[in-house]
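In this supplementary section we document a worked example of the pipeline. Step one takes a protein sequence of length 709 as its only input; no multiple sequence alignment statistics are reported here. Step two produces a three-dimensional model, which step three serialises into structure tokens for compact storage. The input and output of this example are shown verbatim.
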Amino acid sequence: LAFCRGRVVRVPKGPLIRVLGTEVVIPCNVSDYDGPSEQNFDWEFSRETDFVRIVSTWDSTFTSEEYQKRVSQGDIKLRRSSNDAVELVIRNIQPADQGRYKCSTPSTDATVQGNYDAEVQVKVISDGLSVSGSKARSSMSLKLSEGDSIKLRCSAVTTSPEHTHLHVTWQIKSGSTWRDILSLTHEGKFQPGPGYEERYRNGDIRLDTGANDTYRLSVSQASSVDAGAYRCLVSEWVRGADNSWQKIQEKSVEIASVSIQRTGEYVAISTSNVSVTERDSLDLTCNITTDRSGIFQAEVMWYFSVSPDDTLSDAQILLSVDRDSVVSDSTLISLSHIDRNSYRLLVRDVDVEDSGYYFCQAAIWVPLHNGSWHKVVERTSAPVSVVVTALEPDYEVFLNASKTPKFSDDPTELNCRITNAQDTEANVRFSVSWYYRKRLRSDDVMAEELLAMMDADWTLQLGDRSRERAQNGEIIFFKKAVDTFSLRIQWTSESDRGDYFCVISAWSRHRNNSWVKSKDVISASVSIFWATQDYTLTVEAVKLKPFFVAGHTFEMTCKVSSKNIKTPRYSVLITAEKPLTDQSNPNGTTRIISLNQDSVVRLEDWTDQTRVDGVVLEKVQENEFRYRMYQTQISDAGLYRCVVTAWSPGGGGMWREAVNGLSNPIQIDFQTSGPVFNVSVHSDNPTIYQGELADLLCIVTTDGMALEP
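The serialised model returned by step three reads:
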């Protein structure tokens, strides 16, 4: 094998049959060589025995004189396709160019091995191919409607002395390039172009041969994509020496320019904006206008959307009728075919939720050869606005106060009543909302605050202002009667003073059993207010015995009077202000005993254990209290007062502190201006024995004089 290896130069196997006047391309390549990768080539031509030099890739002086003009004009040239291959190109080949062509490669090998040239025979035959269209010299112009059929014809015939085959292709140009529609190849096979395979299988595109070497193109159900220029492209093929097919020439002729007028369709709803009353029927008609003739069927869809700008994907399909006149099912909506071009939509028992935008979409379908249908056009109408007016019940709202407070902590009750109600059948129910508005001293009015509101199912929703008190039972919302809603404040405080109003909402039940608010009526406001005056409390302390000495009973009373306090009760505390010399209470004031508003007595800071029962505080009557201190001592000296607190009834049975009062002081001051005397003990016998009688003498003297014992 090593000895057989060497350079190999190859050209096509001849003879190469080419047509007069066409361009001839003869390839030549070299392999299995040494040296540089890029090889050079020389081409020579011989009609009989001697070879004449034509052109070279490396020697510009290689060309012989008879070829210099054709080479310089570019009619003959070399075209390198790779480092080891070139093509000899001869434009407009003539009979004189028939003969043998030799391709040679100068040696770059270390040793001479293989072949360094190869020859091929070229045979030039006359042009016998003729391609024509209509009898007119120029292509015809066709104006068709969408859905029409296109029928075009061209003739192709050859008188070549060789056994050649024709390849016929119908092409279309809608832009700048030609595209294949359908071909009848030189091997007798039909070949659809890219994008036409399905239409060819469906029989919508056909290529038929006829008498006088004619080739007919038929396109059924033409659409806008079929508009453009049509031409018939014919190529002539011959089998080479290697049994492969070779295209020897190609011709074309433009047959027609086809314009397709799209199927006109106008879709509109027969009415403009519509207003209907709740529970009535909505009647709309979709009208279709088209210039389509022949057999076709319409497909109609009705849509609903809440916005005129919604797309079809966002809209809701109500009903549809297909091209077989089958209508989709619905209970309250019907679709009927009035005539060939009109479709009626009827919506029965409309409610407010049916308000929105209605539009219809219509498509035109035409039958195809294989029994299927093809949609040729589709249009959508402009939306029609439909407003469904609710059947509002007629009623009035009256708000009154059945209980008004005169003092703080008095109850308040408001009644919101529905009056003069009409058209309030079973499909209507009422709910209430309560509002509060605070009064200001100026003309400004604060925004209202929601106290509570009811939903359609009478679920109570509390506002921030009333939530805690309502949960504690201090504010109660209830339905007092069929037509009356009530608000009760158990214990009204000053912060509750202001204006109150209610809103009665009417709710209508829709087809899906949901409740939708149809009307609100606001009541006049009711003012809850009472005049408030400052609480006043006066306490007067009176000493019942103007003079007493140590060991006697101290007694004083406290009389209380008050104003602007509702049913007051009083608690009393007795205090004493001792002299600063009293080290038992360096702060100066001592809380002695107290009595609360429920008449419960309590010792406060009274610490004398020998006189636990030595102080008494009691209620003489509603506004009078008495304090007693038995066996007074010098240490009890000081200023005594009554500290009184007035209480009024609060919410939930509790007492609320109203005001405090302090009485005038009552002084305990023991007398020190009596006689001065001394006391001594004397015994005549200070020393005695156990068991003896002791004789003691108590002597009282004044001014040095002994007094009678």
